[in-house]
UniProtKB/TrEMBL annotation:
S-layer protein outer domain segment(s): 44-623
Name recorded for this polypeptide: S-layer protein
Pfam families listed in its UniProt record: S_layer_C (PF05124)
Top-level lineage group: Archaea
């Protein structure tokens, strides 16, 4: 009995020693690096640039992921593919060299309206004050500024109340919304009526403009309209067909051509175009469109109404896996699936409230209303596909829509935590136009409008002393030690993003605004980018073992990637990833892999998908250093 116990303990100790020796051997294989190199493989620092790219700049490698790998593995493969873009090019001798000058310009001003102006011109022109009597009352301080110098749309003769009630501005923005992924639909934005809320109400009596104030746009004073009829239209463009030679008296010759474009009525108006024909009469059932950036799927279209839901996305779910559907608040858990009967069973958790729904049976291709509140389907799920994976088990592809309801004129929708009222123009077959009006008042300075424009209020007052300029400013017949003020208040509406201005110059051109001429450009190579024409990322089941035509980067552990498992078995490499230290990344290089007819292989792995992502990041950094 004692001998059995001793033998048992000795076996445990021996196994432990073997494990320690194995860990030490792996650690030694990657001495000085921040990742593990399995014994028998080379460090990735030995990988040449030719592993990734051919001499002509095209890809020489494919990235292999498991057929049903974890999302982290797929993301790692995508990151590595993106990193390869930095080395996919060919250098050639540069010809026809041009120099591009680039400068970020001022933020475009959509509107700059002086709303109050008190100065010599407004006194004499707008108020017709005579020199010898009217100007002697010229204000000497803020408290003396008069009340009737607000702009009324024609002259500076109104008071604050008249100005606030008559304020109006209109903007048009191109290509802001999409139908079926095509951003060809502009916005028409109209603002009517605008008020000022002084920061210190006690310091403002409603006469002169407040020194500091927020802008207030009342409820139902902003309207945003989107026209969903798509047109083919032309824009007249002038082209030079012969340059001018003034020394010989040869004039330039130009022709006017019609340039074809696609857009809605707002694009046509902004381009001063001419409509040739209608490409699409609007948004129909089955289409997906965006409204102020929110994506909807249209189920049906009525007269003055339509039924639609927000697109939540589509995802693959493994059995007993819980994850969010897209970027929604709904967490889905696949608790059972039967590919033969074409059905899956899920539970759904509302991460916002913590409420759990289900079990819910989903049948292939049949939408299922999961959460319903009144007339709104808060969540609808649809089973798109079913399959079974040797590693992950049963998997299901599920898509979803949220907030499915019928929209008509008067329906409230949320945008940027504010309520907007919808107006619908539809003919029973197509949505023609949708307009949104703010239900909530908007307050701020600066005040953001839909993330596109910023509205600002500013007040400026200056003073000038008669003796300082030796001039009788108020025309009372004498020059005294008296200062008189002028004042101006402005509403400015700016686009949120500055415009980028570019200028292309060739050798021999003069740099504008200077005496410098570009005499030449030295040591310049022409970089020819090579965009892949075939997929770089493939599944492990798609690898051609008979005639491999590239090198391979294998992403994922032996449990997630069948090709990784085969190579580890062929080279008698350790396959129990648990012996590696938790989240430690694993990288290894095989210059000539027997299984792939001598092609080279890089293994990107780890004990968990998180560790694999670390390994992928290290490889990306290595690739970046090759470029």
């Amino acid at each position: 009995m004692l001998m059995k116990i001793l033998r048992k303990n000795v076996t445990k100790v021996f196994a432990l020693l073997l494990g320690v020796m194995f860990l030490l051997s792996i650690g030694g294989a990657s001495a000085g690096s921040n990742y593990i190199v399995p014994t028998g493989l080379k460090d990735i620092s030995n990988v040449p640039r030719s592993f990734f790219v051919k001499p002509d700049g095209t890809p020489n490698v494919k990235i292999v992921v498991g057929s049903y790998a974890k999302a982290e593995d797929v993301a790692s493969a995508a990151d590595i593919a993106a990193a390869l873009g930095s080395v996919l090019y060919k250098e050639e001798e540069a010809k026809n060299i041009a120099v591009k000058l680039r400068k970020a310009g001022e933020t475009d001003v959509a509107l700059e309206q002086v709303i109050y102006r008190y100065d010599y011109e407004t006194m004499t022109s707008d108020h017709n004050l005579p020199y010898n009597s009217g100007l002697v009352n010229w204000s000497k301080s803020y408290d003396e500024l008069p009340a009737d110098y607000w702009f009324n749309g024609a002259s500076y003769t109104a008071n604050y109340s008249t100005w606030a009630s008559s304020f109006s501005a209109q903007f048009k923005v191109k290509d802001s919304d999409a139908v079926n992924g095509e951003y060809l639909y502009g916005w028409d934005i109209e603002i009517n009526e605008l008020s000022l809320l002084p920061i210190d109400p006690a310091d403002w009596d409603g006469v002169a403009p407040p020194k500091q104030a927020d802008i207030e746009i009342p409820s139902r004073r902003i309207v945003v309209s989107v026209d969903y009829t798509l047109y083919n239209y032309t824009v007249k463009k002038t082209e030079v067909v012969r340059e001018a030679y003034p020394e010989w008296g040869v004039p330039a010759e130009t022709i006017v051509v019609n340039e074809s474009r696609i857009g809605n009525s707002i694009d046509v108006e902004l381009d001063n175009g001419t409509i040739v024909g209608t490409i699409s009469p609007g948004v129909g059932a089955g289409d997906e469109f965006t409204l102020l950036g929110t994506k909807y799927h249209v189920f049906s279209v009525g007269m003055g109404s339509f039924t639609a839901g927000e697109v939540l996305g589509t995802g693959w779910f493994a059995q007993n896996e819980s994850k969010l559907l897209g970027n929604s608040r709904w967490e889905i858990t696949l608790i059972g699936a039967d590919p033969l009967q074409e059905k899956a069973i899920v539970t759904v958790k509302d991460t916002k409230t913590g409420e759990l729904y289900g079990p819910v049976v989903l049948r292939l291709g049949e939408p299922k209303d999961v959460v319903v509140t009144g007339d709104t389907v808060e969540l609808q799920l649809k089973l798109e596909a079913l399959s079974e994976n040797l590693i992950l088990g049963k998997i299901a592809q599920i898509s979803g829509y949220g907030n499915i309801k019928t929209y008509s004129s008067g329906t409230y929708v949320e945008y940027n935590d504010q309520r907007w009222i919808m107006s619908v123009d539809s003919d029973g077959e197509y949505i023609k136009r949708i307009s949104m009006t703010n239900e909530d008042e908007l307050i701020g300075n600066p005040l953001d409008v839909l993330g596109i424009y910023t509205i600002k209020y500013s007040f400026d007052m200056r003073s000038l002393n008669e003796k300082d300029v030796d001039f009788d400013i108020n025309r009372d017949g004498s020059i005294t030690d008296t200062s008189y003020v002028v004042a101006k208040a402005t509403i400015t509406i700016l686009e949120n993003h500055p415009k980028i201005h570019e200028l292309v110059l060739s050798v021999g051109d003069r740099i504008p605004g200077t005496d410098y001429v570009i005499s030449g450009v030295g040591g310049v190579k022409n970089i020819v980018l090579k965009t892949p024409t075939q997929p770089i990322t493939i599944l492990d089941t798609e690898v051609n073992f008979v005639n491999p035509t590239s090198n391979y980067i294998l992403v994922g552990s032996n449990k997630a990637n069948l090709l990784t498992s085969m190579i580890f078995g062929h080279y008698h490499l350790p396959v129990d990833f648990r012996v590696w230290f938790g989240e430690y990344p694993v990288l290894g290089y095989i210059p000539h892999c027997d299984l792939l007819k001598g092609r080279s292989v890089i293994i990107v792995a780890g004990s968990t998908p998180k560790a694999t992502r670390k390994a992928a990041t290290i490889l990306m950094q290595y690739i970046a250093g090759l470029s």
